[in-house]
Amino acid sequence: MAEFTNISVTDKNAIETEAERIYKRYGKIDILINNAGITKDRTLHKMSEVEWDAVIDVNLKGVFLCTQVISKYMKDAGYGRIVSAASNVGLRGNFGQTNYAATKAGVIAMSKTWTMELGKYGITANALAPGFTLTEMTDQIPKEHIDGIKSQIPLQKAAIPMDIAYGYLYLASDEASYVSGICLTIDGGISR
User: Which of 12, 70, 110, 176 has its CA 20 to 30 A from that of 60?
Assistant: First the structure.
């Protein structure tokens, strides 16, 4: 069973309250998908401390808090799948995204650390690093800019949301029971 709840991933009390509610309702929490993320793009010298902090709080601290809270339930159960949204930007950087790239690289490193800390409890921890994906957010990007991005991707096309969803599905499944501590890159080969 999947359920969506709208809470701030930067509010540990809200996360604890919601986790307890879910646990009481279902008796377990098997899978955590850390997928909240924001961008506040600016070049290094133009980026404000407020923009830096906002991205760090959601993209990095939020992943830490959600995993810290939810993994306790998984640890007690002896089973869990943690999949956290990174980005290929966390592997290769991107112009104007110092804050975002730092958070996504951090998510990859945290996932590798949690593999070592939580593996003995039957919990896997992985990151997924999507590349350029066509979504409602990209609808406002001019076609010629999108074509330029596609031309840099070895597969010569952008991802669609289902391309990324299949990666999450795999890493959260029993088929990936021996897969932990990886960063699955789904970006058409651009990060090679």
Answer: 176
